[in-house]
Structure formats: structure tokens, C-alpha cells
């Protein structure tokens, strides 16, 4: 068993001094107390965060944020940001947005992404439909037919990846660009996001498929940058941060750390950190690497990838990292999210929450 990364007094320190979002997430993600009086007060403080106020003010009467679907300042980035900040998926703001996505026209689903939104889907990759399915799953709409269909396609892509022995065998070259050959739907970021956000697919056979796909990825990494090809034109798929898993901790750049935390949380939510022995060893090595900081994530890092909430970036819950302690709280919280999928929640010592 992997010991809890920080001790009870450190957890108490986070509950006393971190931002309202981190405190609310600790309550809801670890102790399932988001609805009590303390959690309600924290949620009201989250809504007073200027960043949250800005995003909420950008929601129109139909439920769309910033009048666009994909990208920075979009419905996609807004929903992810608000949920990460601790706003419950049941809240009317999230539900209004999910209803807008359910009713969305093809044209609305192309805002911010353009024609690649449907062209990628034609190639078996993640476009507008997969992104919409992921957002609906985050909003608690896993039973919607859009989500079911996208999950089925994602499992098929994982099954394809599980059988790949050479990345060169599934790619072709056009000038200096590498692109996937026809009928070679390699998984991308939204494949992992969607499966991490859903539960219904997790049969013995499907979990084995995903496990085999992850093992193939590790065996083939680092993967080269690649595109899709539609009617002779190259299209960029969502492969941000999806080219290498196993990186030595001491050589990860500040920008790569943001990607590392996001990727590891997805793998943890998929249950793969416990199923794939290489990942189990790697994540145990990571928590051992934290020991000089007594379990805190104490490495000094800084990059706009953490603070800029877009389609692919954004993890900072604290208002800024000018105070090193705020950075430590933010990144230690990310470590705890990863840890909780390795061990049972009830092995966490609950602090006194009457602050």
C-alpha cells in the first residue's frame, strides 16, 4: 500500500489556508461533503472569484459561454474551468450549458474549431462530436446517446492501438509531415478524457483493451508528432501531451509538468496506474521523489500553461503563484487527486473541518 502523501496536519493546513476551490474539492473529492454548511460557504466564495465571475458573465441565455464551442474562451474551456474550480455538475449553470450542447446544431459545434470538427470524426479521430460527448459526461449526462456512441468509438480506437507494433506501420509521410494512414484511428487526448469521465464501458474485456493500448503506447513512445489526412489536406488532431508518458522527473520542463499532471490524472481515473505495472512503478517512484519535501510538491515551477484555461491548458485553482505556498497547495492537490485512485479514500485521515 502506498502511504498517504501528506500527513494529517499538512492536510489541515491545506484546508485552513488554500483557496476556496481547493478546500471545496478536498471536501467533495475525498470526503463527499460538498453539500454541508461549510461546503456551501466555500462554494459561495468560489463564485466570488473574479475569474469565475468573468466566465459566468459570459454565458448567454441559451447556455453557451463566449458564443463558441471550442478553444480558449469557449463553452468547452468554461465548463472544464468551472467544474475544476469546484462548481458541482448539478448546478444550473452547468446544466444549462449541457442542454445547449444537446440541442446544438452542426454549425454551433464548429465554432472555434471549424471544418476540422467534422473532418476529424470522418477519420475516426476526435472532433466536435467526441468533445461534446466528453463535456456531457462531465455534466453527468453519461446516459445520453451522444456519449454512448462516442464511448463505443473510443473503445474501438483503443482496440486498434492495442494491436499496433510499429508506429511507422500506421503512418505515411507528406513532405516533412507525418500523418495517420487510412483506417488507423490512433487514440488522442479526447479519447482519454471521455473514457476517464465515464463508467459504463468498464467491463472486464474493455478494461483489458485499454490496458493493452496503454502498454502499446509505452512500448512505442516517444511518439512523433502526426496529423490526420482528409481529402489530401492535413488536419491537426488533439495530441497535446499525448506523445510520451514515462519521463524522468528531474528533466520535466515547467510546461511539461502541467501536461504531466493532466495526463497522469486521466490515467489514474481510467484505473490504469494500478493495472499497468510500468505505470504503477513510475507513480510510486514519483511519490518517493516527493519525500525531500515531506510529501508536498515543492519543486519551483511557473508557466502560463497552468494559469491559462483553454481547451488543452489550465490547472491553477489558486488565484496566482506569487506566493510559493499557493503553488505548493495547487500542485500538492493534483498529487492527491492522482493518489486517491491508487488507494482507498477511507485511508485518508479526515481533518477537523470546523474552521
Outline the structure in words.
By secondary structure, the chain is mainly α. Among the domains are: 1-19 and 245-355, no CATH class; 144-243, no CATH class. It has helices at residues 8-17, 20-31, 37-47, 50-57, 75-84, 92-102, 116-122, 128-138, 145-162, 189-196, 204-220, 254-269, 272-275, 277-289, 304-307, 324-340; strands at 171-174, 177-180, 228-230, 233-235. The chain has a two-stranded antiparallel ribbon with strand order 1-2. Strands 3-4 form a two-stranded antiparallel sheet. It starts with 7 loop residues before the first helix and ends in a 15-residue tail after the last helix.
Mean pLDDT reading = 93
Percent of residues in β-strands: under 5%
Supply the number of helical segments.
16
Q: If strands are numbered along the chain, what order do they take across the biggest sheet?
A: 1-2
Number of strands: 4
Class derived from helix and strand content: mainly alpha
What is the CA-based Rg, rounded?
20 Å
Shape, per Cα inertia axes: globular
Order of helices and strands: HHHHHHHHHEEHHEEHHHHH
In terms of per-residue confidence, which ranges show pLDDT below 50 for 5 or more consecutive residues? 349-355
How far apart, in Å, are the first and last alpha carbons?
A: 31 Å
* Secondary structure: helix percent: 40-55%
What's the story with the biggest beta sheet? 2 strands, antiparallel
Amino acid at each position: 500500500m502506498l502511504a498517504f502523501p501528506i500527513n494529517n496536519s499538512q492536510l489541515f493546513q491545506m484546508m485552513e489556508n488554500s483557496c476556496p476551490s481547493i478546500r471545496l474539492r478536498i471536501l467533495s473529492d475525498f470526503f463527499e461533503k460538498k453539500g454541508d454548511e461549510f461546503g456551501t460557504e466555500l462554494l459561495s466564495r468560489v463564485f466570488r472569484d473574479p475569474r469565475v465571475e468573468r466566465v459566468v458573465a459570459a454565458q448567454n441565455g441559451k447556455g453557451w459561454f463566449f458564443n463558441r464551442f471550442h478553444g480558449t474562451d469557449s463553452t468547452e474551456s468554461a465548463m472544464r474551468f468551472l467544474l475544476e474550480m469546484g462548481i458541482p455538475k448539478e448546478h444550473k449553470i452547468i446544466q444549462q450549458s449541457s442542454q445547449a450542447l444537446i440541442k446544438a446544431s452542426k454549425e454551433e459545434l464548429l465554432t472555434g474549431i471549424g471544418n476540422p470538427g467534422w473532418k476529424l470524426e470522418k477519420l475516426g479521430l476526435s472532433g466536435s462530436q467526441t468533445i461534446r460527448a466528453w463535456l456531457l459526461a462531465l455534466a453527468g449526462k453519461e446516459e445520453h446517446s451522444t456519449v454512448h456512441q462516442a464511448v463505443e468509438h473510443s473503445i474501438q480506437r483503443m482496440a486498434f492501438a492495442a494491436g499496433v507494433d510499429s508506429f511507422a506501420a500506421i503512418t505515411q509521410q507528406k513532405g516533412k509531415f507525418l500523418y495517420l494512414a487510412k483506417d488507423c484511428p490512433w487514440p488522442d487526448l479526447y479519447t482519454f478524457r471521455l473514457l476517464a469521465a465515464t463508467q459504463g464501458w468498464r467491463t472486464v474485456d474493455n478494461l483489458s483493451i485499454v490496458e493493452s493500448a496503454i502498454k502499446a503506447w509505452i512500448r512505442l513512445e516517444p511518439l512523433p508528432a502526426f496529423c490526420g489526412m482528409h481529402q489530401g489536406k492535413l488536419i491537426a488532431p488533439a495530441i497535446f501531451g499525448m506523445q510520451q508518458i514515462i519521463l524522468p522527473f528531474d528533466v520535466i520542463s515547467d510546461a511539461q509538468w502541467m501536461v504531466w499532471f493532466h495526463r497522469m490524472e486521466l490515467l489514474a481515473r481510467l484505473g490504469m496506474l494500478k493495472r499497468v505495472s510500468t505505470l504503477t512503478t513510475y507513480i510510486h517512484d514519483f511519490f518517493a521523489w516527493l519525500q525531500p519535501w515531506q510529501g508536498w510538491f515543492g519543486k519551483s515551477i511557473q508557466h502560463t500553461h497552468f494559469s491559462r484555461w483553454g481547451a488543452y491548458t489550465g490547472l491553477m485553482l489558486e488565484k496566482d503563484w506569487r506566493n510559493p505556498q499557493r503553488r505548493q497547495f495547487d500542485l500538492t492537490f493534483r498529487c492527491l487527486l492522482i493518489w486517491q485512485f491508487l488507494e482507498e479514500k477511507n485511508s485518508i485521515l479526515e481533518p477537523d473541518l470546523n474552521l
